[in-house]
Amino acid sequence: MRPALPALLVAALVVGGCGDDGGGSGPPPSAPDTMKLTSRAFTSGATLPARFTCDGKLGGVNPPLTWSHRPRDTKSQALIVEDPDAPGGNFVHWTVWGMMARTTGLQPDIPPLGLPQGKNSAGTSKYAPPCPPKGASPHRYEFVIYALKGPIDAKPGAPASEAIDKIKRAALARGTLTGKYGR
């Protein structure tokens, strides 16, 4: 009967460890990728035109973006632009939130007046154009639109990590558009 005791203990530990006491602080849940995000300037997986990078005129401007397929219960929207291939780890290029539920896009080179923007990895609260190191392999730039269940409570200039955490926690759905750029 003794050999059954270790097996019983292992089974109890496995079953006991599977529960969620609600006190864990894991990553925020991922919103379903059901929205459609496009740009008339580039297609997903294609190269970003230089105009929208640090090599563009005036140091680069945000590309035009259009989105659709928002859930009916969307109350607000947010956009995050990141470079997961940056040498120091993920580089946040832009966080902007507070867009009305009926918003369906952003125009190029027009700052979102009146909308809060978080601090990016460059230390500014605006669009930081893609600017990978010269000679490096092309980097991926992920533009992600989020439909939110309500407005997020973050002040303009909030650290990127705070804004992103609040956006992801309020997210109902998302859509992704990825551009590449190398120098």
Structural class estimated from helices and strands: alpha+beta
Helical percentage:
10-25%
* Low-confidence segments: 1-27
| Secondary-structure element order, N to C | HEEEEEEHE
Shape descriptor: globular
Radius of gyration of CA atoms, rounded to a whole number: 20 Å
The largest β sheet comes out as: 4 strands, antiparallel
Average predicted confidence as pLDDT: 86
What's the β-strand tally?
7
Lateral strand order in the biggest sheet: 4-3-6-7
Strand proportion:
25-35%
Number of helices: 2
How widely separated are the two ends?
69 Å
Please characterize this protein's 3D structure.
By secondary structure, this protein is of the alpha+beta class. Helix content is 14%, strand content 26%. It has a four-stranded antiparallel β-sheet. A three-stranded antiparallel β-sheet has the order 1-2-5, with no helix packed on it.
List the helices and strands and how they pair.
Blueprint: H1 4-17, E1 36-38, E2 65-68, E3 76-83, E4 91-100, E5 105-106, E6 139-148, H2 160-170, E7 171-181
Antiparallel strand pairs: 1-2, 2-5, 3-4, 3-6, 6-7
